[in-house]
Hints:
The structure holds two protein chains of two kinds.
Chain A: H1 10-20, H2 25-28, H3 34-51, H4 69-81, H5 91-104, H6 107-118, E1 123-126, E2 142-146, E3 149-160, E4 167-173, E5 184-190, E6 196-200, E7 210-221, E8 225-226, H7 232-240, H8 246-268, H9 275-303, H10 311-334, H11 355-361, H12 363-367, H13 372-383
Parallel strand pairs in A: 1-4
Antiparallel strand pairs in A: 2-3, 3-7, 4-5, 5-8, 6-7
Chain B: H1 3-19, H2 25-34, H3 52-65, H4 72-84, H5 90-97, E1 103-104, E2 111-115, E3 118-127, E4 134-138, E5 144-149, E6 155-159, E7 169-178, E8 184-187, H6 188-227, E9 229-230, E10 233-234, H7 239-264, H8 272-300, H9 311-321, H10 331-340
Parallel strand pairs in B: 1-4
Antiparallel strand pairs in B: 2-3, 3-7, 4-5, 5-8, 6-7, 9-10
Amino acid sequence: MRTDNPETLRPEVRAWLKESIPTGWRAAMTGTDQGSFVRAQRDWFTKLVQAGYATPHWPEGWPGGGRSLAEQKVIYEEIACADAPRLILYFVALYHAACTLLDCGSAEQKKKYLPKILQGEIWCQGFSEPNAGSDLASLRTRAELRGDRYIINGQKIWSTMAQFADRCLLLTRTGKSDPPQGGLTYLLLDMRAKGITVRPIRQITGDDEFAEVFFDDVEVPVEDRVGEEGNGWAVAQATLSSERGLTLVELNQRMRYALTRVATVMRERERFDDVAIRRDFGRLIARVNASCALADRYLLKRICGEEVVGDASIVKLAYSRTLREFTSLGMRIGGLQSQYHQSFMRGATQETGNWVVDFMNSYNWTIAGGSDEIQRNIIAEKLLGMPREPRTWKLSGESA
Amino acid sequence: MSVDLTEIQDSARQISSGVGVAAGEEKTWPLIIELGLLQVSVPEELGGLGQGLSGACALYRELGASLASGPYLSSMLAIDAICHGELTRREHWVERVTSTDYVAAPLAESSLSVDAARMSGVAVAVPSADIATHFLICTSSGDCVVLVPRAQPGVEITSRPTWDTTRRLFDVDFRNIELEPGLTVASGNAARLLIQRLSTHRDFALASDSVGGAGALLNMTVEYLRARRQYGRPLALFQALKHRCADLKVLISTAEALLLDSLTRLDDTIDRHDETMGKAARYLACSAYSRVAEEALQLHGGIGMTSDHSCHLFLKRAMLNEHLGRRSDSYELDIADGMLSTL
Lengths: 400, 343
């Protein structure tokens, strides 16, 4: 890791962003179809890769790689502050896939897949299933070893952008489920393999960001297994911890800049003449700044190696609740106007000013990536030392 | 955190370990003076520890966690004013007010006016005014900060007992008293800047007291839930209660993050922007404290309603904190206006 002052990087990143951000992307991405969204994401991805700002977290030797966490934080802050589009389509590839490969992949797997990620391969995540959401370890998609291939049967759900993906990070069951975390195996799957059906899920906003993926005797060569058979749970932890708090720093900063955007519009419309709204907006400013400070301090803690299990849950819960509050207030200040149907914007965070859509999308943060309820369990158990409820249960009137 | 701040917190902890939680003023106040805690934010060139507002806030947090009595906040506001004011012989004053003399500053906004070097009005929420040697008074017009000896004719104090028994508040009535020219701490624009400084100091102090108190109270509540058993299991096992505690933890952590982050952004002069940061920290921390205190009593059940248990002491201090500082309904609007003015 480089130890130079991360701040020296800031002017360089800022200047590059000023030159490079696609002008008018917010307008261009409003009411657009998914095809143009994918093209715009690809263009922005290519620019970032060339400048070395897409992979600062990769090791030295890769474009822009070998940056310290403090430097990565600077890059993310500047990206947020410059209001660049979010790189939603490539997030799983750049973080989840790459970090899993870097931490747990074999030399051959790294050599085969990492360069392709830089060339723009899109990855999706195949973890959740209809009956394995919060309780991920109870997943049932089977992988059966026959000769030198695994045969996959089952179903995944909530895979973000799976309909565009080239590859999938697939968590499967190969063995018994006692304990449930045992018997899981981690595979890299070619989304063009025979037997895969992808069905986009129509969401309440009218968009279809996620998909269901069905597997019918899909073959995966054994060399595409990451780690040992039965060790998939440990590998999945590498996937889930790959972003290391950077995303929440970025999202919080974006939420903070959105305050200014909202305030400007609201002042133009004279909504601040309403004292009750001004008061609620003041409260929101305090909460947003606090959520930002929390994410910031959490990352500093990580940089110093002082993180404790459960810290990340506080940061996520603070963000998700603040975002809900932000979008609820947005709907209130938007009034009846906000209820009229308008086209939504792609590639942005949930403060676009299309308040009903923003509000609906804010559930992405209170449900995905460990729901608020799961985060509360973690905080209570890991940070407050409250006991975990017993594993066995019986409803009254039911026989054991 | 620097070693010095840790040292300050360690000595502040000696107060609670020495005299206990919510001990009386007669025990805590002499100890605070003896440990030299009042010197924390006095600049080094005036003989202090030079730890600035961050140092003071580290102290306020610890003392807040143990519900310390004693007019330390009021005293440190006055000391801050003396250090940054224009009195002659400042070293001499600092020496006096950190050892023998207690200069009391109001913890809430008061209505006081000066006309032809004579002052009238009532200063409210002045802690422990009966043991003060002087009062530090900011006039409502904002252009005058003065010291007034308690013994001066025309100064009358009235005790105003509060539900919060960890503070002893007084009204101080000034009846057309004559101001001594040598006791002017600041006037004109310097006074305006000094008042901005003191109000901000007070906001950060209340925020720190609240974060400290809320954290201690949540720990105490979780301990209780772990120990108390009903239906053959600890209450801490019930998810309905765990989730409420987790939400309180998030509330405290966000208020704490905003407080500490804001303190790192301050330098020696307090400007408008710093003032808004102080308001936001005060607003968020005091409302978090109230919420934690309200929930803590409920989570304790019947025992929380008894005077023997310390739950109510936290609740009453949290409720009073919400009314100290600036006018309690002005914070959220001020934060909004602070941002709108920068657009």
